[in-house]
Amino acid sequence: MNSYLACFNPVCRAHFGVNEVIYNCPTCGTGLLEAQYDFTGINADALKKTWRERRMDNAPLSQSGVWRYRELFPFVDDTDNVVTLREGNTPLLSAPRAAAYGGLSRITFKHQGFNPTGSFKDNGMTAGVAQARKLGMKRVACVSTGNTSASMAAYASAGGLDPFIFIPNGNISYGKLAQALEYGAKTFQVDANFDQILALVRVLAERLGIYLLNSINPFRIEGQKSIVIEMMDQRDWHVPDWIVLPGGNLGNVSAFGKGLRELKELGFIDKLPRLAVIQAAGSSPFYEYMAAKGLTPFKSQEHPETLATAIKIGDPVSWPKAQLEIETTNGVVERASEQEIADGKAVIGACGIGCEPASAATLAGIKKLVSAGVIAPDADVVAVLTGNVLKDPDYIYRYHTGQLTGPDGAPILPTFGNKPIVVPNDADRITELIG
Ligand code: F0G
């Protein structure tokens, strides 16, 4: 199968070999790159059957909820390069209480926090690490708000590569930092924000010949397509009205849009769902840009602020791709405040599901979009929970005990707080309290 890289810039569209170590187009100098394939010979019905059969198969690649669908991202010819921790395979969960909170008659969460390192990054990282191994790279690097680094550390170490991680000092949760350390990554805490560190890491990657595994890497995007492919497979190829996801660097919405377009073009699905991206209000350059409807150029935010540190990004690299996907799917971009995210998160938790703060932007955004009449109350909505509840326990404890304050120091109310109760070792007293 013929695979190549294409410049995403519509006035350039230069092509490059799939084995070139490039992250932006060398011809126009700026364009993002995307993987393209000759999909001739793809038979949707036959593949749907093959993919179902693989679920019953014990081969590691069939058990992976990413590589099971490898025909739609065939850039790896030798699957010996694949490192799988059995990523993907994440559930669709219905949550009536969250639906009611959001103003919907039903909602389904696709919970990417069930992944091996607890976030959707594993879907992309297994693909990025396969490409690194195919290219003969020995060292890999990323800047991260925490989840990419946790994932890269695990997959690189599992695949015999040396992971180098760069994170904003003091601005990632301990759960995520702990994972990077435990998975054996050389970890640098830099006194700069995510966007500044990305520029730094690009210089270092070039200088030291280290392979860059941020979402600017087009092969990670290919792996993340599997999230929507698996979602459609689990829904017997019935397309929801909406897919809602949080937006930071905007790689994931780029991957979802590309994957959905390909599924439609190849006859797997009969229509496109609408995509809704939710940003944290204090870190919402893409929201601002899209709200201006093309009247102002994209402007990065110099000091993004949010307690949802995973999406604390002021200069998202993939915004041109994200714009195309929002426009193609007749999608929308919304923003949610710190209080809205915190309350949405507690509601998702009280459904017995739980997620990390950034993921809860979905429910907060849905609530706003339903009350604004954008999403119909009876719509079929899938919200993607991107990270596991245990990624940021400090946030949870503070919320429930009324100690959470926003980046500006303003208190966040424990609307759905559930404070632990200190009791004496006294059965009568506890009986009284339980009532
Ligand atoms: N949700 C979580 C839990 C994340 O970790 C991220 C991104 C996003 C949403 C946003 O996804 O960047 O594709 O728009 N985390 C990155 C990281 C930036 O370094 O782990 P996006």
Task: Based on the model shown, name its key terms.
435 residues; Rossmann fold; 15 helices; 13 strands; 14% strand; globular; binds ligand F0G
Characterise the protein shown here.
The protein is an alpha/beta fold and 435 residues long. Among the domains are: 1-38; 92-117 and 224-400, Rossmann fold (3-Layer(aba) Sandwich), CATH 3.40.50.1100. The protein has 15 helices and 13 strands. The chain has helices at 44-54, 60-63, 96-102, 121-134, 147-158, 174-182, 194-208, 218-234, 251-265, 285-291, 319-328, 338-350, 357-371, 393-400, 427-434; strands at 3-7, 15-17, 33-37, 92-94, 108-111, 139-143, 162-168, 186-190, 211-212, 242-246, 274-280, 332-336, 381-385. A six-stranded mixed β-sheet has the order 4-5-13-10-11-12, sandwiched between helices. A four-stranded parallel β-sheet has the order 8-7-6-9, with helices on both faces. A three-stranded antiparallel β-sheet has the order 2-1-3. Helix 5 (147-158) packs parallel to helix 6 (174-182). The radius of gyration is 21 Å and the shape is globular. The model has no long low-confidence stretch (mean pLDDT 97). Bound molecules: ligand F0G.
